[in-house]
Amino acid sequence: MTTSSAPTAMAEHPRLLLHNFITVDQCKELEFIHRSCGVMGYRPGVLSTTLSHLIATNCPHLILPFVSIRNRIKDLAEDFFSCHFDLFLEFTGLISWCKGASIGWHSDDNRPYLKQRDFAAVCYLNSHGKDFKGGVFHFKDGEPASIFPVVGDVLIYTADSRNVHSVDEVTEGERLTLTLWFTRDSAHDEDAKLISLLSERLLNNEDNHSDPFLPVPASDNMYWFSHGHDQLGFDVRCARVHILGYNFCSTSKKKCETSDSSYEELLARPLQLSRGDVILGEEFANSLHALQVVQFYYWKAHELKAARKCSSSAKLPQPSLLEKTSYFHLVLTGDLKLAEEVLGCVSYDDNPNFFNWDDFALAIAKWKVYIGKLHEHLVVSLPQWINHQIIYLAEPSEVEKHND
C-alpha cells in the first residue's frame, strides 16, 4: 500500500490518496453486489446501492462484505485527521456513474442537510481507461489536483470548502466507487440506524417464515433509468442481464408491454432466463433473484470453470435446457439499445467461448452456498452488534461456536 500526498498542502487542503488499499478480489465482490442490487441514485445517470437498501430488499447478508473495508477506512480517517474514537460512519454506499454523468465544483457539505459531514472517502472499484473513460476527479486547489481512478485506491479528504472538487463527465462505461462519509455527530450514526433495521427485518422474516436467501425487488420506479426529457429509458434489471447476453422469460399468459404496468408484475413473479434460442429450465423467484445469479456467475466464472474440470461430472449439477417456443415470451422493458450505450462497457470477460450452461448450473448451487454462509454470519453477528451498537466482524471462533 503506497501513498500519494503533498505535505506542504496538507494544512490548507487535508487529503490523502492511498494506492492498493483494498484487494482486487474485494473490489470484484462489491461490484457483484452493486450490479445485482443497484437502483437509480441521487443524480441523473447515477446508480447506487446503500446498506439500508440491501436490508429493505431482503439482502441484509450482503452487508457483510462491506464491514471490514468500512472499518479499515474509518480507522484510516481517524488516524490521518487525528480524531481517534471521535468519528461515526454517516453513509456507506456503492455508487456508479454511467455515461453522461458528471458533477461540477462543490464540497460534500454544501447543503444544510449535509452539514453533519466532516470527512469523505472514495474507494475506487474499477479503473479509468480500462473499465470506463472520463470520470476524472479534480480538486479545485492543492495537491494531488487530479485523481485518475485505479481499482483498489482510496481517497480521503475533508468534506468542507477546503476540498472543493468536481468529476468529469463519464464518456464510456460505468465508473464504480465505494463512497463513505464520516461525522462527529452521533445523531447521524449509520450503524445505529442499520442495526435497528436489521433487527426488524430478521424478526419479520422469522414471524412470516420468509426465505432469508431470496431477494425481494424494491418499487419498480427505483429501477427505471430515465434518459433526458424525452421519456426514453430502461429497466436496470432487464438491462443488466441483456448486456450480458440474457433475457428474462415468462410463461405468464399476460403479455408484457412497457407502456403499462404489466411488466412490473412479471418482474416480481417467478421467471426464467434465456440466452439465444435456449431457455434455462430453472425457475427464479423474481427478476432480482435471477439477476443475482447471473452476476454471481460472471464474478466467479473462472473459478466455476476450474471447479468443473477438477470434479466428476456425476457429482455436479446439470442444467435443464429448453427450446424457446411460443409458450415463452420475453420480458423486455425499455430501450435496450440505449441500455447498451449507457451500460455497455462491463468488466467481465467478453470472449464468446466464455459462457457455458454447465458452469452456470454450478453457479446457481454455489450462489446458494455463498448467500447461506453470509446469512449464518449475520445471524451470529447481529446480537453482538445490538449489544455494542456498532457493526463489526465477529471473530471466527464465535461463528464456529454458533455453528456447533
From TrEMBL:
Listed InterPro entries: Oxoglu/Fe-dep_dioxygenase_dom (IPR005123), P3H (IPR039575), Pro_4_hyd_alph (IPR006620), Pro_4_hyd_alph_FE2OG_OXY (IPR044862)
EC category name: oxidoreductase
TM annotation in the entry: none
Pfam families reported for this sequence: 2OG-FeII_Oxy_3
EC number assigned by the record: 1.14.11.7
Highest taxon in the source lineage: Eukaryota
Cofactor(s) annotated in UniProt: Fe cation; L-ascorbate
UniProt entry tagged with the keyword Metal-binding: yes
Fe2OG dioxygenase domain span: 79-184
GO molecular function terms listed in the Swiss-Prot or TrEMBL record: iron ion binding; L-ascorbic acid binding; procollagen-proline 3-dioxygenase activity
Name this polypeptide is given: procollagen-proline 3-dioxygenase
Upper taxonomic lineage: Eukaryota, Viridiplantae, Streptophyta, Embryophyta, Tracheophyta
